[in-house]
Amino acid sequence: DKYKTLADLAGKTIAAEGGSAGENVIKNNPDLKDGLKSVGAQTDAILEVMAGTSHAAIVDLTLARALIKK
Predict the structure, then answer these.
(1) CA 13 to CA 34: how far, in whole Å?
(2) Which of 12, 33, 43, 45 is the most buried (most CB within 10 A)?
């Protein structure tokens, strides 16, 4: 609920899987690219947020849905 738009993530650390579409979105956004933290897998991006080392994670909708159901 804290972050509703990409603009809300400006200046924050955002974890995304290296080579993913999510990573490309961050890299191509001048307000976000300095906060990019590339990780090996989408699940690693989630772990970054859980550990408090990233403010947000960019993951595929399928994974996000699965995590929400738990």
Answers:
(1) 8
(2) 45
